[in-house]
């Protein structure tokens, strides 16, 4: 069982994005659900949120966060199920230079909204997972399903690294 021991008063938002009706596109939502089921969270400052395809309605939750980790399917030009982390400016660069996913308004548009409000968390990261299939379907493909616990472990490590850097 994963354990998050966030000791500061900062709120860390872990936001899973994606459409669960488009096979691997919904992987971010599945990772958040995995964390919800397998994380002992004794600290109210860690917020797990299924953002689905909610778009700009996520601005309020994102603006309220002191730090943010977004989990989403991402075209990484790697094998299906590959997981890659983009932090801070690297996240911004990746989002600006990627192809759009099926849930446009894109994450980069939402971050621009936060910029306009001067509310972009300094500590932010995108955990991207390479999809295999983005067509209609309710279940993740085997390679992407296998990446769910790996992505959850990466998120746990990222939260811990941010905690020790504070």
Query: What is the element string, with H for helices and E for strands?
Result: EEHEEHEEHHEH
Structural class: alpha/beta
- Largest sheet entry: 5 strands, mixed
| Silhouette | globular
Please tally the helical runs, counting DSSP H or I stretches of 4 or more residues. 5
- Tally of DSSP β-strands: 7
Radius of gyration: 15 Å
Give unreliable regions as ranges: 1-7
Beta fraction: 15-25%
Please, what is the average pLDDT? 83
In whole angstroms, the N-to-C terminal distance is 24 Å
Main-sheet strand order equals: 4-2-5-7-6
Q: Work out the helicity level.
A: 25-40%
List the helices and strands and how they pair.
Elements: E1 2-4, E2 12-17, H1 27-38, E3 39-41, E4 46-52, H2 59-64, E5 67-73, E6 83-87, H3 88-96, H4 107-116, E7 123-129, H5 142-165
Parallel strand pairs: 1-3, 2-4, 2-5, 5-7
Antiparallel strand pairs: 6-7
Describe this structure as you would to a colleague.
The protein has 166 residues and is of the alpha/beta class. Helix content is 37%, strand content 23%. The chain has helices at residues 27-38, 59-64, 88-96, 107-116, 142-165, and strands at 2-4, 12-17, 39-41, 46-52, 67-73, 83-87, 123-129. It has a 5-stranded mixed beta sheet, sandwiched between helices. It has a two-stranded parallel sheet with strand order 1-3. Helix 1 (27-38) packs across helix 5. The two termini are 24 Å apart.
């Amino acid at each position: 069982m994963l354990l998050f021991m966030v000791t500061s008063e900062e709120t860390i938002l872990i936001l899973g994005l994606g459409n669960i009706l488009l096979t691997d596109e919904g992987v971010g939502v599945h990772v958040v659900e995995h964390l919800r089921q397998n994380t002992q969270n004794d600290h109210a400052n860690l917020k797990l949120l299924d953002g689905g395809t909610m778009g700009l309605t996520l601005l309020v939750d994102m603006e309220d966060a002191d730090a943010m980790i977004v989990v989403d399917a991402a075209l990484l030009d790697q094998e299906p199920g590959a997981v890659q982390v983009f932090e801070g400016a690297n996240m911004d660069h990746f989002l600006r230079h990627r192809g759009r996913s099926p849930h446009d308004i894109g994450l980069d548009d939402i971050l621009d909204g936060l910029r306009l409000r001067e509310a972009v968390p300094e500590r932010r990261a995108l955990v991207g997972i390479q999809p295999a299939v983005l067509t209609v379907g309710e279940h993740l493909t085997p390679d992407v399903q296998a990446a769910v616990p790996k992505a959850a472990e990466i998120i746990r490590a990222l939260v811990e690294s941010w905690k020790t850097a504070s």
